[in-house]
Amino acid sequence: MIGFSVRWAVPFIYLVVATSAAQMLFPGPFPMWLLRNRKYIGLCFAVAMAWQGLFIFMMSNFFREYYYQDIYLLRDELEGSVGYIFLAAMVVTSFQFGRKYLTQKQWKLLHKSGLYFLWAYPFSVYWWNLSYYENPQAIDYVFYWSGFLAFALRIAAWGKRRLQVARRNEPQGSTPLAFRVLGGAVIAFGLFAAATGLHWQEPVTAFLTAPKWSADLVLWLPFWPFEPYLSLFIIGLGAALVTGKVSTKGRELAKEGEQT
Ligand code: HEM
């Protein structure tokens, strides 16, 4: 019941993560509708998560021995509890009676960090299902790739915004070809890494947790050492290259042409 209830919740959090990016990349009435109703989509997620919360409560109270022997793991407990704390705080501050206690800046910080955390949790669950266990189900693929797409859209929207700002400052400028080619290659590598976790997870985890301090962090720090997110980090780097450092060479050449 815990697993099944979460499956009803996850699509809603992915949708909220993708909404602002969708409007930036494909402006139109439907993305705008999603954006306007983001709060209610988030609340749908919260309702489905409340069911999971109820089933977790039942398990940990009525099947105490089973819970502590077979399920309980400090780090999972910390990850899950942080998730529920964010969720409760986000729900309360979605309405005027809770919102009034926060400044605009605090509200934004809470909702943005909570959104990332609540996306990161299921995304990592399904990444591990595909990249560690060798018998994933079809639903693991669906939820992994849709979580990936939701975040990748945010990266694309971020890149588009960077380009727009750069173009506004340097209307004739463009990103140097070398940056675009290198960035494209880095993005392709990130996509490759996203699809092949099963083949690199073990050595990469071993490498990242080789120092004792890092191995100790695994015991309590949520998601450490962040293997599920490496591919998106690489894609983000690639996007920064593709959209970065606008060169004015074109404009200078054009100017020279006008003078001669
Ligand atoms: C203290 C809090 C939490 C506890 C004790 C907990 C416990 C569990 C348990 C026992 C399962 C079933 C595992 C299995 O079927 O093998 C599960 C599944 C799952 N939980 Fe939680 N959880 C917590 C919080 C969260 C939060 C905040 C999220 C964020 C969305 C989340 C997302 C998931 C997902 C995605 C699954 C897999 C569902 C599937 O089978 O497809 N959990 N959780």
Structure description:
With 260 residues, the chain is mostly helical. It contains 13 helices and no strands. It is globular. The mean pLDDT is 93. The site of protoporphyrin IX containing FE has 16 residues, from α1, α5 and α7.
Summarize the structure.
The protein is mainly α and 260 residues long. 81% of the residues lie in helices and 0% in strands. The longest helix is centred in the middle third of the chain and has 32 residues, at 138-169.
Structural features:
binds protoporphyrin IX containing FE, 260 residues, mainly alpha, 0% strand, 81% helix
- Biggest sheet record: none
| Counted beta strands | 0
Task: List cofactors, ions and other ligands.
Answer: protoporphyrin IX containing FE
Span between termini: 76 Å
Shape descriptor reads: globular
Task: Please count the helical segments.
Answer: 13
Alpha-beta classification? mainly alpha
Instruction: Give unreliable regions as ranges.
Output: none
Arithmetic mean of pLDDT = 93
Rounded to an integer, what's the Rg over CA atoms?
22 Å
Fraction of residues in helix: over 70%
Q: What sequence of helices (H) and strands (E) makes up the elements?
A: HHHHHHHHHHHHH
Q: How are the elements arranged and paired?
A:
Blueprint: H1 2-25, H2 29-36, H3 38-62, H4 64-71, H5 74-92, H6 96-99, H7 104-131, H8 138-169, H9 177-195, H10 197-208, H11 212-218, H12 230-242, H13 249-259
The site of protoporphyrin IX containing FE has 16 residues, from α1, α5 and α7.
